[in-house]
Structure formats: structure tokens, C-alpha cells
Amino acid sequence: MLDDKIYVGMDVAAWNDVTRTTEVHATLVTAVGGGPLRTLVTGGRRTHSGPYSSAKTNRSQPWKAPAEVARMMVCEVDSAVETYLAQPHRLDFRVESERLQFFPDLKIVYRSGATAVERIRSKAEVTRGLGESRAESLARHAYGLLGWEFRVLDPGKAEEGRAVGNARRIQLDRWTIVDARQMRRALDALDRAGGQTAFGVVVDAMGGDAAARAQLHALIIRAHVAIDLDAIFDDDTAVRRGPVAGKGN
Hints:
249 residues; Arc Repressor Mutant, subunit A; Trna Endonuclease, Chain: A, domain 1; four-stranded antiparallel sheet; alpha+beta; 2 domains
């Protein structure tokens, strides 16, 4: 029995499985407070894990593998991402007398209104060549009914690539304070250039020092300024007005 002071269940749907004879019932369970459903649970295993302190979501996001925190860093910096949540929910499935559970690693909500749910495979799963589990297959169907995209990522791909490298660098300054005057200088530099200019030009407009560079990184994370995360990131990288430019802090 679920404690309704801690969890809330949402009926997703009931459908017939691939045999078209067995009815499947799915319930999505979330934490009442809106945070991660699970904190760090390692089951006594020796594993790299910890909390990621997110400025974008203003909460601590738990991770249990380096690939998970790498994905969080990309979400932190990507201006297309409005918010994200680690260990966001649990899917409970009932298939006749069988009970199955599925725990995704990340839920991402985009400014476009789209939602994606990600599961990052463990390195052991990749090494052993394991395919999609029964619970994962049911989860894919349930997310489709909700209109959410479901992604299964290999840890190598989640940890590597230019976007990850750029995000790692930018997110280091995620808690940097940017006052209204510095934000105005950054946005004015972009406006003078028609909405887009080089990263170094904006840094110079903000003072040209290390503090200005950190503040511009923080403005990228807060989506006042945007970049292409897959581009080579240096002073010549194009930066543009972000989706919330000048709104709030």
C-alpha cells in the first residue's frame, strides 16, 4: 500500500499487450513534493554516485552513474530545456498476476512543450549485450500513450561528445551571480549585432575579464543567452538571445 503522504499515483491507461489477450494496467507514481522519487539507492554496491546541485531547477538531483550526471549537465546548459528531474517517477504495471516496476533516470521538459523520459543503460548491460526488458517495453508503450518521447541511451554516448564537453565547462559557473546591469550589457551587445554575435564580443561588453566570462556562462544556463552546444566553444562561437532574455534573473 502506498503512503499517500509521500507518493501520488496517476493512472496512465489500460491496454492489451502484444498478445491482444492480456490486459495491462499502468500507474505512474511520483513524489508529492515534485522532487526525485528516489534519492541515492546503491543497494550496498560500490558505485560512483552523488547529488548534482542544479541552478536551473533549484534542487539537488541524485545520480548513480557518471553518464547520468553528464546528461544533467547538458540539460542544465541547453536553453531548449525548461526543466528536468532525476529519478522522476516509477511506473507500476499489473499484467494479470504479474507485477513489474520501471524506474527511469531522467525526465526532461522542453520549452516547446515536449517531454522526454530517458533511461541510461549501465555499462554491465552494454557489456552483456542485454536487450529491452519486459518492463522497459511496457514503459515505452505507456510513455507513448502520454505523448512523451522515450529514449534509452548507452553510457558511452551519454558521457561523450562536444555537447557534453561544452556543458561541463559552462555549468561550472551555474551559481554565478549576474546583476541587472551586467545582463543589460550582454543583451545590448547582442542587440547591436542584430541578436547574434561572437561569445568574446559579449564578454568584452561585460568587462572582458574572468568574472565577465563566468557571468556570461551563467546567462546561458538561465536561458537569457543561447549557444549551439554542438559547436566548437571559444571566443568566436556564435551566441544569441535566449528564450527568456531579459525576463527575471
